[in-house]
Structure formats: structure tokens, C-alpha cells
Amino acid sequence: MKVAKYLWIAGAMLMSQTALKAQLAQIPYETRGSHLIVKVQTNNSDSLSFIFDSGATNISIDSLTAERAGISKENRETVAVGGSGGTQNYKMALHQNLKLGNLEIKDVNMVLINFASLSKAIGVKLDGIIGYEVLSKYVTKLDFERKKISFYDQIKSVDTTGYTVIPFEFNKNILIPRFPIAITLANGETFTGRVMFDTGNVFTLIVSTPFSKYHNFDSKLGETSVQMGRGLNAITQDQLATINSMSFNGFNFGKMGIRLTINDQAEPKEGYLGILGMEVIRRFDVILDYMQKKIYLKPNKAYHDAFPAEPKKAGIYKESEDFLAKNKTRPGVKVTPSGLQYKIIKQGNGEKPTMEDRVSLNFTATLVNGKKVWSTYDEKKPWVHRLDKALDGLGEAVLMMPEGSKWMLYIPAKLAFGDTGTEEVPPGAVLIYEVELLKVARS
């Protein structure tokens, strides 16, 4: 009996040691909004704050952080990176090494991006974003109740009891998991399409314009509103709506607010529905197995939480109306037929741009109370785009400005973010721009 007992103890110890070996690392994370913030090290840097994002197919690092971390300027190349406002060129640091807890991620490339605006939006100094380079190498478990991320060598090392297995696919070299879901709109019609599983999307669901156009969602959504925001490269627009339900793989959710991208140039297309986000994902314990192309989901305590409603349309603030009424009487302030107010600080001698030209602008944008919203000076990089990527009021003004000019602009909400606002701009708010037209590049 004693021999059997000792054999049992030895076996248990061996199993325990095997399990510990199979779990390669476990790290805590913090949350900012719905973003998962993990600590990463590169070279001899202190701990850096990275968003852990299953929708990130490249590692990116803040350009200033890269300088402070001693990442060499020599081993770099220029790459094109797509964003919600189009594609821009960025520098990529090649053959870098990172540490995530005690995991070493070797010989990876990192795109250098200025994250000042995103840092401001989420309320924490953001140093980078990491996702696929880790997920492709390790089975990854997200525990939203304990706020921990665990990494394993293989799926056999993980207890999957009680989980539902969802096979997924990568599509057209976009290395983000996709699987089908069904949604029922306000008019009772149900539609099925593939969604990307994206822990970097803080919303419930973002529906793609091609899918919504193909199925004529505009006539089926019921009451909607529009909200503007700032993408990586330009101003973006989302349509806000409420759906009756969402379901996938035996999981069913009731009414929830969703977002639909607005892109007038997009062609109608079936198949790809959109992006599933954290307001749904956080309701599960999640295991991601990229090697076997499977997601494991098990409802957690948040599964039955009510979904937040998308913001409704709000009225124009009286503060904004009063400001514009008083401001237009000040010396030097002129008013256009659209309601845009401007004052010339310096008049340049160059040519005026057209809508087809690319312009380089430096600007600082504030609210009427003086709160700074954005500044290209803070980001140490001018805004370079065609004017169809700008706010209506900004675009109207710059079309009147000769190259080399500096103007003050007082942009009514109807020419800015309307009566829905953004995270940084309240509904109905006037925006004040000090803007300088640096260069006009003819198309």
C-alpha cells in the first residue's frame, strides 16, 4: 500500500511539473476602456505599455518610444500601412527582439507609428500594439475575470472542459480569425456573414459598408444616427443602429447597439459582414489556437450583462451658438455663406489648393473652453492628405488659403462633427483651428 501511495504521489508530481512546463507564461493585463494593456520589453527598455490585439497583424511601436528604447535607425525600411482613412508610408524597424513576461519573441519587425492621438483617447501613454506575432506561436488563453493572459505550447496543455469550439479561417492573407455569425435587424430580417474576431475593436460589432450596401441595410435598420471619429490617417464616419439579436455557434444575444462603416466609394458585396469586438468577446473565457485554427469560448459572469446603448442624437449646445454669435462681431472675423468663421493671421503668397491636391497642414484644434483636442505640433508631423479627408469646415477654409498662410478658423458643429460628436469632441461643439498651409502638391 505504501508503494502504491508513493507511486501515486510521484505520478501527481510528474503531472504537475508537466502542466507547469506546458504553461509557458502567464501575465496580468490592465484595461483602458475595453483595451487590454500588457507590459512589453524591447532591448534594455523599461516596461512598455502595448495593446494586446488579435486584430493586429503587425507589431507596431510608438516612434518616440523606439528612439528612447535605442532601436537602431540603420536597420529600417519603408512600408505602406492601411488605415481607416487610406494608406500611408511608415518606417519599419527590422529584426527586433521583445519580451512578454518570460516569453522571448525574437527576430520580429515593428512598424513605427506616432500613437499620441490614440494615447490621449484611451487615457494612457501607449507604446505599441502586439497580436499575431504572439498568437501565431502560442496557444493563448484570455481570462477576463482574473485579468490574466496565459500562453501554452499546444492545445493539449489547456483544460478546455465546458468550452465550445469554433473553427475559423484566415482570408486573403489577412491574419485575423474569421467565422460566421447571424444578426437580426430592426425589421426582423436575419443576415449571415463572416466576422473578424478582434480584441482591438472596443465596440460590439462593426458592419462593413459592402455588406450593408449589398443587403440594403439603410431601409431595414430603423432609427439611426451618425458619429464621426478619427482613424489612423483621417476623419471617419460610423452609422449607429440597434439590432434585435446576434447569434453564433449556439450563443444568442438580444438587442445591442452596433456600428456600420460609411464609405461612399465601396462596392456592394456579400460574404464579409464586419468585425466582432470586445463588448461581445469579453463575455467569454477565450482560448485562441492559431495553429489548429480554432477558437474556444466559454461564457463567464459577464455573459448576461446588458449591452451598452450607442449614443443617441444630441442637440447643439447653447454655449456653441452663443460663442459663434459673439465671435462674428470681433474685428477681422469673416463669415462664409456656410457659417464658417475665419480670421487671417498671415496671408501667404503661394497658390491656392484644389480638392484634388495633397496639402501639408500644421494645426492645433481646441474647443471653445480652450481644451486642446488635437495638434500636429504634438505629434511632430504635419497632416498630409487631400482635402476630401478633412472636416468640411477645414476643407472649405484651406481651399481659400494661399500656400504659406496661417488662419484662425471657427468651425460650427454642422461643418465638423455634427450633433453626435466623438470621444474628444462633445455633440454640437464648435472647433477652433489655428491652421497653417505649409505646402500644396499638385495632383
Task: Give an overview in words.
The strands form 4 sheets. Strands 13, 14, 15, 16, 17, 18, 19, 20, 21 and 22 form a 10-stranded mixed β-sheet that branches. 36% of the residues are buried. The N terminus is likely disordered. This protein has 3 domains: 131 residues, Cathepsin D, subunit A, domain 1, CATH 2.40.70; 107 residues, Cathepsin D, subunit A, domain 1, CATH 2.40.70; 124 residues, Roll (Chitinase A, domain 3). A hairpin with a 5-residue loop joins strand 14 and strand 15. The longest helix is centred in the N-terminal third of the chain and has 21 residues. By secondary structure, it is of the alpha+beta class. Helices cover 16% and strands 43% of the residues. It contains 9 helices and 31 strands. The radius of gyration is 25 Å and the shape is globular.
Secondary-structure blueprint:
Elements: H1 2-22, E1 23-28, E2 30-32, E3 35-42, E4 48-52, E5 59-62, H2 63-68, E6 76-83, E7 86-100, E8 103-113, H3 116-122, E9 128-130, H4 132-135, E10 139-143, E11 148-152, E12 164-167, E13 169-171, E14 174-184, E15 190-197, E16 205-207, H5 209-214, E17 225-230, E18 235-243, E19 245-248, E20 251-253, E21 256-261, E22 272-276, H6 278-281, E23 284-289, E24 294-299, H7 318-327, E25 334-335, E26 341-346, E27 358-366, E28 372-375, H8 376-379, E29 383-386, H9 392-400, E30 406-411, E31 431-441
Parallel strand pairs: 4-9, 5-8, 15-22, 16-21
Antiparallel strand pairs: 1-11, 2-3, 3-4, 3-7, 5-9, 6-7, 7-8, 10-11, 10-23, 12-24, 13-14, 14-15, 14-19, 16-22, 17-18, 18-21, 19-20, 23-24, 25-26, 26-30, 27-28, 27-29, 27-31, 30-31
GO molecular function, one term: peptidyl-prolyl cis-trans isomerase activity
Protein name: peptidylprolyl isomerase
Keywords: Isomerase, Rotamase, Signal
